[in-house]
């Protein structure tokens, strides 16, 4: 099997032409160019009497990117290929549009796929299923053609050469088409942008090195199960066909085995230019030992919604792996350096970020820290009182001195000064405590107040035991759902007329510039401004002027209480 280069892309020449098996007049389209047909005369004739395929020449193996005029064409083509290869075909899954009977996707598989149901095991019929992985997945694309989007060619059983029942399902219409000698009725297989990352001489995918058949025990090797590498390869192929600005990179260890993977589509790369000032690097699935060791780069868009800026799969939580993925992400984003990077508390992450993004402000996610309180302190005596004191120190103090005083009271009053987790938290307080981060720009990503919840981007789509292959199937659905939510918010903001709640000129000005969600947050602050009164200047220190402001704040019991606050005004 050859890999040929067309322009800046590589495409797979599915079959060499040494045998001269082209059908006269057939063409294949690649990147808008026409080449001699990759279609062979293997689009078999049918014997009208027994409805069996009569192959004339070696048949083209299915490949990601092949397109057909109809579902029947794909089905019949795969049946003909199956007959020549020596296996049967059955329909594993079909998908139909909700409000109609129109089919938009299907999976055809080897008849030996899966296993018998338990209730059928005792029947006299001999067991023929072996859990065979061979299959093709197809879907209806925007051009109203059927495209093969995933292919597995390998079988786990011996192949025969007998006539198969699946071939007998060919329709009479198709028999007439395939029997016709007219070139106008010859089906042409078209491969649109069938980009191949790397193909071995036997046609098997080597894009991510040798496939790990079982869970790896090596710390520098990505744990892959059988079929995972094929799933990643198929996903990359699909994205390269439909997304010209799709980026991906793979990292191998010294043995040539896959260690790390990164990818980002065109939308993520474009979004980084708008929403990449503050980036949250989420390694929750990796650190929590999920079956899919996923890490994500996430920003916040103009509606306050999470936006994906890239994804990765890492084999371990070492500085080396983090350095690799940060450098790869930066290269993908044309050298972009975030103003602020938010991560979990991890020494390896700290080291990696200091190396790759030395000018960025690295901060720890407050939500990640506070959600570990039950795990780290739950076994202590007086846990409820300790938790309440901790939350008060974190969320209710406004000055560094107040925070340190409240923290000192907590650890000495409850006798937890020797607790290692609390000691390490206090040592790193300038990286996570809200009172220490007033000069850090977070763009709304950080959980600054009690009750704020920062959910993972793929929340509800990835669970502890979600396999990699299932995640890749859910990935596109999750991303498309987020895109739809953003589009709906765009439409709502364009058609929305704000109601002003003050006579301030800046409220009118901002209402014309902000989206609905952002304006509502701004307007809340405008309303709260009317709770402030008795403003008095305390003193001036160079460009900084300090004022004393009284405010009626809402407290427990839905009542207002007057408190004094100091506000700093910095003259530029």
Automatic annotation (TrEMBL):
Instruction: Give the location in the cell.
Output: Nucleus
Keyword Nucleus on entry: yes
Residue limits of the FAR1 domain?
76-159
A Gene Ontology cellular-component term? nucleus
One Pfam short name:
MULE
Task: Keywords in alphabetical order, please.
Answer: Metal-binding, Nucleus, Zinc, Zinc-finger
Residue spans crossing the bilayer: none
* Any GO molecular function: zinc ion binding
Q: Which residues form the MULE transposase domain?
A: 278-371
Function summary: Putative transcription activator involved in regulating light control of development.
The entry assigns this protein to a family as follows: Belongs to the FHY3/FAR1 family.
Q: What is this protein called?
A: Protein FAR1-RELATED SEQUENCE
Q: Which organism is it from?
A: Kalanchoe fedtschenkoi
């Amino acid at each position: 099997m050859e890999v040929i280069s067309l322009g800046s892309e590589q495409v797979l020449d599915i079959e060499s032409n040494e045998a001269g098996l082209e059908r006269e007049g057939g063409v294949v389209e690649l990147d808008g160019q026409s080449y001699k047909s990759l279609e062979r005369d293997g689009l078999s004739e049918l014997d009208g009497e027994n409805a069996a395929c009569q192959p004339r020449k070696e048949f083209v193996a299915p490949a990601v990117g092949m397109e057909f005029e109809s579902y029947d064409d794909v089905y019949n083509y795969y049946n003909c290929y199956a007959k020549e290869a020596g296996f049967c075909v059955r329909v594993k899954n079909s998908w139909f549009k909700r409000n109609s009977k129109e089919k938009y996707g299907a999976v055809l598989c080897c008849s030996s796929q899966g296993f018998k149901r338990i209730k059928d095991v005792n029947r006299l019929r001999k067991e023929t299923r072996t859990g065979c992985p061979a299959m093709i997945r197809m879907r209806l694309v925007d051009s109203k053609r059927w495209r093969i989007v995933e292919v597995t060619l390998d079988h786990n059983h011996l192949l025969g050469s007998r006539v198969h029942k699946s071939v007998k399902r060919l329709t009479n219409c198709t028999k007439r088409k395939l029997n016709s000698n007219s070139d106008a009725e010859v089906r042409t297989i078209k491969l649109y942008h069938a980009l191949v990352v790397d193909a071995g001489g036997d046609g098997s995918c080597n894009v991510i090195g040798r496939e790990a058949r079982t869970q790896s025990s090596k710390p520098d090797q990505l744990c892959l199960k059988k079929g995972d590498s094929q799933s990643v390869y198929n996903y990359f192929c699909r994205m390269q066909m439909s997304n010209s600005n799709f980026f991906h990179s793979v990292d191998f260890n010294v043995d040539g085995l896959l260690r790390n993977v990164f990818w980002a589509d065109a939308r993520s790369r474009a979004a980084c230019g708008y929403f990449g000032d503050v980036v949250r690097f989420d390694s929750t699935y990796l650190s929590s030992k999920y079956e899919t060791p996923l890490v994500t780069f996430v920003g916040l868009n103009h509606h306050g919604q999470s936006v994906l800026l890239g994804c990765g799969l890492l084999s371990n939580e070492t500085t080396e792996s983090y350095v690799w993925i940060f450098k790869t992400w930066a290269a993908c984003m044309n050298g972009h350096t975030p103003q602020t990077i938010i991560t979990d508390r991890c020494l390896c992450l700290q080291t990696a970020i200091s190396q790759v993004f030395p000018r960025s402000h690295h901060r720890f996610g407050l939500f990640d820290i506070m959600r570990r309180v039950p795990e780290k302190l739950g076994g202590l005596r007086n846990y409820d009182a300790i938790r309440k004191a901790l939350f008060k120190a974190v969320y209710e103090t406004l000055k560094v001195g107040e925070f340190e005083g409240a923290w000192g009271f907590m650890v000495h009053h409850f006798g937890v000064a020797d607790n290692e987790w609390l000691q390490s938290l206090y040592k790193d307080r300038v990286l996570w405590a809200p009172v220490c981060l007033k000069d850090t720009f977070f763009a709304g990503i950080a959980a600054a107040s009690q009750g704020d919840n920062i959910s993972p981007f793929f929340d509800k789509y990835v669970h502890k035991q979600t396999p990699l292959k299932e995640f890749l199937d859910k990935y596109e659905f999750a991303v498309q759902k987020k895109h739809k939510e953003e589009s709906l918010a765009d439409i709502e903001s364009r058609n929305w007329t704000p109601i002003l709640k003050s006579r301030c000129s800046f409220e009118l000005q901002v209402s014309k510039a902000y989206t609905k969600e952002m304006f509502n947050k701004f307007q809340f602050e405008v309303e709260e401004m009317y709770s402030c009164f008795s403003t008095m200047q305390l003193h001036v220190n160079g460009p900084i002027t300090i004022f004393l402001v009284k405010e009626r704040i809402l407290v427990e019991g839905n009542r207002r209480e007057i408190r004094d606050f100091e506000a700093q005004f910095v003259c530029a």
